[in-house]
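On clarity, I found the account of how folds are encoded harder to follow than it need be. What matters is that the chain and its backbone geometry are given together, residue for residue. I therefore recommend that a typical entry be quoted early in the introduction. An entry of this sort, consisting of the sequence and the corresponding backbone structure tokens, reads as follows:
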Amino acid sequence: MTGTRNPLVVLATGGTGGHVFPAEALAGELSARGFRLALVTDRRGDVFSGVLGDLETHRIRAGGVAGKKLVALIQSGSDLAIGLFQARSLLKRLKPQAVIGFGGYASVPTMLAACFGGYATAIHEQNAVLGRANRLLATRVRRIATCFERVEGLPDETSNKVVFTGMPVRPAVAACRDHPYPSLDDDGLCHLLVVGGSQGARVLSDVVPAALGRLPAKLQNRLRITQQCRPEDLDRVRASYSNLKLDATLNSFFADLPERIATAHLVIGRSGASTVAELSAIGRPAILVPYPHAVDDHQAGNAHAIDDAGGGWLMSEDTFTPEALAKRLDSLFGLPVVLKRTAANARAAGRPKAVDELADMVAEVISNGANGGGDQAGRRAA
């Protein structure tokens, strides 16, 4: 690196887990490499913790992007127009060497301002379907990092920009990657983990207890259930398991979720980007039930990718009935070799070096054209 100051990288992200987790992982890696960092989000963004919580943070206005082209967005979206002006002024003052976006409407004003201002830019797409914010930015940025080898919605002219990095995961998740799949025999305990993303999922609270109640008594006695529920569902789900006399640990949040994934023989959950990444990083088989109202049905795309890799099974919500789930669970727990092979396939689909590859891409973007008044940098800051 030339000059007296290490390169400054601006991260633009919203407050949902799918955007925050990769941003946090990248922030940790870039910080370890000696880069300076700043975070830009919108005024409704969450209060960040961990590495992101320690960063210089700027909040600007943002607006939704669904179904709008750029000109219409700027003309009709006062929030976006104000946010674009705020971001332009902020970037002029900060003079970053790169601006990296993680999707979501909160990232749009900053990324557009960076593209218009000629800064080195890249976006990270967490899903198997290009998000609407990233779709707006794809032809304008210099690099597009993806978590899946195939991503629907990428414009043809962006093929030379795409870098398959994978989805960075939290250190606590990466630390569980070398935990072997727990042994499972015909009489041993069966550990079932049920997670519904950061907010839980009501359909899992409705269907899973009813399905487990339909299993043979011998299998019920072997089950040890851990389930994440919405706070408002906890009492009724707890009552359901109590009536069934099943051993269940329930909570609305598990701080040690990576360890619980590692000890599970099977996981049932939604197929958001973070969930899929953590399952594949650790290597555990899963029944994935995509949220049917996700924008552009991107959760179905994520689940299809895992299903195609042999790392799990997709069950659409309309087929996710107590009867169908009970039949599937009875079959799977009776075939330990299938669960173990599926766990291995899930692990093989993981990208343990994702954060390193993403950080390398950021350094490459900087080294191929520093801007904003900043200094050039090599692949690793000195």
Observations:
- Residues 8-167+352-367 form a domain with the Rossmann fold fold (CATH 3.40.50.2000).
- The two ends are 6 Å apart (CA to CA).
